[in-house]
Task: inverse folding
């Protein structure tokens, strides 16, 4: 207990006036926000989400991992109690956002290199030094209000081209303020150089970068766990035989182990619905690997089981990612860079009730294009199939060529 009190005292005593000003303004902001009734109603749901088992256990794991890192650095003499403030701020500002960004890592293969490089960038260096010397508390509070207001106004002015002159004006004011802060730093550097040029300053500067680099392996394995977990859940939903979905998971894990981005590429081409028994597993793994290898081409060719156990096959743009397959409704759902894509086989339902914008022919198929739906920002194409069925292809107007290519290459086998 005494040690905890000592840590709190070290933290409070090491705060500079700028950090105190930011904490005061943050508290005021939270009081104002939580005074709004509609915001308070959201709090129970957010708390339930944050304390769900799938978040709490990995978060505790991260805390224990970081505690081990801090213990090792402390044992090596690199860390001391005077740096507790820097550790706390790093945890709140860097570590927690990294934790919640773990699920987004798969979208950016340069994520880890970029995060490691951020701490040796010019912006980080300048930011550290201009925050080294601070003003009196009242001036800092006023300064932070001005800076926050300017950043907010610049963000708002970027929403419309007509506000471009306003954006330029506020941006110049912001640059002038930062230039003044740099000059204030240079002035203090010459009048009191010993305060900056010492080993503690060097450690304070490099500590956030070192901690970030050391925590990135945990974030990597957290992202890997999320990917495997979502894959396993998907297997359980689709493959009803426990032995079969466990066998599939085991074979995929043996193949990719800890290769996160290899796993992500593989799963984007892996068709669970093509698996009916254990003999199909290795076959589908090999087919998925072939699809990954052909990823450099403009289109990918895939087959999906339908309502009558036939296969529907078509080419689709390689950049599209399959989000969902459903054999009951013969549906395949993609996600392109522009939005959601839906490909489904229906009974003939639309005739006489649809608003047709265009009737045309592509290849040997006739199609009807429905009117643009402004509410969902989508267009849809329908082409007749055999057995009183129709193919329904819907997506964004930007994906028109991809949708037409699906119509042209679509086959039932």
Result:
């Amino acid at each position: 207990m005494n040690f905890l009190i000592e840590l709190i005292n070290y933290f409070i005593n090491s705060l500079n006036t700028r950090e105190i000003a930011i904490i005061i303004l943050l508290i005021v902001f939270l009081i104002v926000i939580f005074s709004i009734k509609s915001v308070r109603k959201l709090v129970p749901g957010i708390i339930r989400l944050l304390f769900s088992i799938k978040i709490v256990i990995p978060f505790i794991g991260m805390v224990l991992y970081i505690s081990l890192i801090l213990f090792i650095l402390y044992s090596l003499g690199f860390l001391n109690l005077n740096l507790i403030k820097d550790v706390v701020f790093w945890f709140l500002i860097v570590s927690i956002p990294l934790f919640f960004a773990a699920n987004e890592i798969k979208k950016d293969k340069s994520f880890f290199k970029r995060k490691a490089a951020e701490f040796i960038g010019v912006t980080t260096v300048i930011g550290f030094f201009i925050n080294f010397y601070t003003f009196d508390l009242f001036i800092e509070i006023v300064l932070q209000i001005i800076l926050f207001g300017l950043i907010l106004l610049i963000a708002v002015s970027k929403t419309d081209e007509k506000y471009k002159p306003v954006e330029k004006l506020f941006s110049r004011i912001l640059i002038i303020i930062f230039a003044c802060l740099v000059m204030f730093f240079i002035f203090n550097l010459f009048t009191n150089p010993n305060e900056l040029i010492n080993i503690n300053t060097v450690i304070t500067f490099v500590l956030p970068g070192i901690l970030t680099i050391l925590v990135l392996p945990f974030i990597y394995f957290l992202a890997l766990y999320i990917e495997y977990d979502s894959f396993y859940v998907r297997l359980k939903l689709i493959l009803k035989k426990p032995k079969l979905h466990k066998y599939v998971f085991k074979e995929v894990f043996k193949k990719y182990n800890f290769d996160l981005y290899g796993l992500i590429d593989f799963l984007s081409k892996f068709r669970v619905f093509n698996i009916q028994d254990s003999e199909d597993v290795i076959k589908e793994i090999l087919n998925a690997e072939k699809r990954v290898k052909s990823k450099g081409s403009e289109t990918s060719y895939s087959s999906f089981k339908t309502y009558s156990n036939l296969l529907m096959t078509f080419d689709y743009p390689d950049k599209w990612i399959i989000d969902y397959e459903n054999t009951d409704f013969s549906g395949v759902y993609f996600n392109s860079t522009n939005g959601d894509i839906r490909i489904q086989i229906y009974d003939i339902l639309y005739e006489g009730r649809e608003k047709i914008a265009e009737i045309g022919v592509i290849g040997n198929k006739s199609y009807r294009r429905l009117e643009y739906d402004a509410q969902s920002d989508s267009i849809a194409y329908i082409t007749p199939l055999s057995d009183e069925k129709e193919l329904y292809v819907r997506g964004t107007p930007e994906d028109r060529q991809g949708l037409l290519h699906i119509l042209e290459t679509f086959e039932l086998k």
